[in-house]
Amino acid sequence: MTALVAGLTLPLLAAFAAIALPMRARVPAALLGAGLTLAASLWLAVVVWQTGPVTLSLGGWQPPIGIALRADGLGAALGVMTALVMTAVALAARHEMAASVAGPRAGFGFWPLMLLLWATMNAAFVSRDLFNLYVVLELITLSAVALVAISGKAEAIAAALRYLLFALAGSLLYLAGVVLTYAAHGTLDISLLAARMAAPSDALALGLMTAGLLVKTALFPFHVWLPHAHSAAPAPASALLSALVPKASLLILLRLWFEAMPDLAAPAALLTLASLGAMAVIWGGLLALAQARLKLIVAYSTVAQLGYIFLVFPLAGGDGGAQVWAAGAWTGAIFQTLSHGLAKAAMFLVAGIYLVAMGSDRLSDLRGMARALPMTGFAFALASITLMGLPPSGGFTAKYLLMTAAFASGQWAWALVLAAGGLLAAAYLYRPLAAIFARESAVAPRAIPRSWQAIPLGLAVLSVALGLLSSVPFEFLQIGRPDPAAEGL
Amino acid sequence: MSLTLFALTGAALVGLGVYGLLARPHMLRRIIAFNLIGSGLFLFFGAAAARGTGLDPIPQALIITGIVVALSASALAVGLVVALARSSGTAYLPDEEGRL
Fold it and tell me: Can you tell me where the transmembrane regions are (chain B) (predicted)?
């Protein structure tokens, strides 16, 4: 329980410190806060592993009056992934967001915003109250939008405003669903809603909340704001926006459809969600192929990679939840969430290093970068292996689990989507890889310290290790699952 | 009866807000439209939750929290519009200036 509270309060305290302390002490305080929060997230995972889900009723008030927090395997695993990405980004930002590189405004604003985002992400992973989740989503949006605009350039401000428009529309849709749910049931606690008497307005409420969350998750066709917002931000902020921010709304979506209202999961609705996911995989991949800048390729690839996760709905949702393949499909989707987060953050941090070294992220300017900065080339290649879904990476485990479930359930069309998505990823990542590993050297880039180059490499190695050591996270994710299937495939 | 009136007013506010959001590309008008939708939802929430016999304090708490959240979102949005107007001289998003 202490670990749960620490994960929520430490980043908030550090954010205050990063604003209020004298200039020299701000960055050290933020880094200390990041280290402590990482420790709290790991500690929470150990507690969940040893004793099962951790539950806390805020202020001693039980639902439906109070708000319950509950860290299950899923929430704790996402918390650890977030902590690893945040820590790596903080270490990279020490170089990249220094006031001398990024300017005094971005150098000051980045740290409190990053820590606020961290605190709200952690809250999203453990909260069990739908209105509390609305507030948390709004806070995530506010810090994310501010991170997009932090450079102060005209195009960054326009991208941030467009992002804010979509995100606010999504919030209001979600809020409308929450209002309808409360009006019908008098509670917003996920566990209490699971045991509710079905009401006629439930389908509309779930539909509104889902639509709002899809906008925030940037699922096709609501993805149009994402690539420009993610590529307009400074690279460490892009890493947070692409690797972490969509995962919060995605988790709430999973909680709604698998925990709060699984009885409403009609086949047609599940099919719609997965079809949108499939179109995101194809369309995001095709658009990534057409980009000339590394950050835009990586940002469009986020649209595609998020699409895979939505295949979980027909494979493990509704009546499929009782089948033997459900556990595999569900865990595969979470593996995709985790490995994409690690690999995508690594790619954006590499792009950030190239931007500092070359002053550009155009593919034509990045030829031969692997010779000048070998560790970054290696990190980008490892992260690409995860995104393509090649063995032995975490992305491979995810796609293998989803594909096995697709065949076992007879829904082989989703297996085709997985295969096509893998080929597209190989195609759109081939171009940056070919440029980075080209024989001829680029014009001498600025020297980058090895300790900085090692940060994305560490994340990329973790994303591959998730596949090599997949049995422990697999079991961990089953802790506190609503109806764990006895036999996985 | 008055509750129905409140709920209908809330619904009308949401409708006005959605119209403003779709029909008016000026960013300040859009922010006002978002606030109209939010206020409409909260009014509807209050009316829907007051139907029961006893007095339910939770919707009041939630509405107040929601208003605070909407205020901070509006503040950030207005700040960004001012920054946009300063840097590009217009309060429209780049590809939407043409359609007034």
Answer: 30-50, 62-85
Kindly state the average pLDDT of the residues A302-315: 95
b/e code A94-113 from CB counts within 10 Å (16+ = b): bbbbeeeebbeebbbbbbbb
Query: Whole-model pTM?
Result: 0.95
| Beta-carbon separation of A172 and B93 below 8 A | no
Give yes or no for a contact between A241 and A192, defined as CB atoms under 8 angstroms apart.
no
Residue B64 domain-assigned (yes or no): yes
Token pair of A447 as six digits: 């020297």
Mutation test of the interface with chain B: which of A67, A142, A161, choosing the one with the most B Cβ atoms within 10 A? A161
Q: How many residues does chain B have?
A: 100
Flag if B66 and A186 touch (Cβ within 8 Å). no
Cα atoms in the Cβ-side hemisphere of radius 13 Å centred on A479: 24
CA distance B3 to B9: 10
CA-CA-CA-CA torsion sign (A42, A46, A47, A53): positive
Q: Which residues of A, range 59-78, sit inside 8 Å of B by Cβ? A: 64-65
A171 touches chain B (CB under 8 A): yes
Name the DSSP class of A318. Answer: G
Q: Which residues, 6+ apart, have CB-to-CB distance to A135 below 8 Å? A: B65, B66, B69
**B76 in any annotated domain:** yes
Quick check: is B99 in a domain? no
Does the beta-carbon distance from A158 to B93 stay under 8 Å? yes
Tell whether the model's pLDDT for residue B63 goes beyond 80: yes
Partnered with residue A362 across adjacent β-strands are: A293
- Structurally, chain B folds into a number of domains equal to 1
The answer to whether A239 and A147 are in contact (CB under 8 A) is no
* DSSP annotation string for A107-147: HHHHHHHHHHHHHHHHHHHHB-BHHHHHHHHHHHHHHHHHH
Q: What is the nearest CA distance from A365 to chain B, expressed in angstroms?
A: 28
Contact by Cβ (8 Å): A144, A244: no
Show which residues on chain B lie within 8 Å of chain A, measured between beta carbons.
Answer: 14, 21, 27, 30, 34, 37-38, 41, 44-45, 48-49, 51-52, 56, 58-59, 62, 65-66, 69, 72-73, 76-77, 80-81, 83-84, 87-88, 93-94
Contacts of A186 (CB under 8 A, 6+ apart): A64, B52, B56
pLDDT at A247 over 70: yes
Amino acid at A212: G
Q: Which domain holds residue B62?
A: 2-87
- A307's CB contacts (< 8 A; 6+ apart) are A219, A220, A276, A277, A278, A279, A280, A281, A284, A421
Enter the ipTM: 0.94
- Residue-level pLDDT at A4: 93
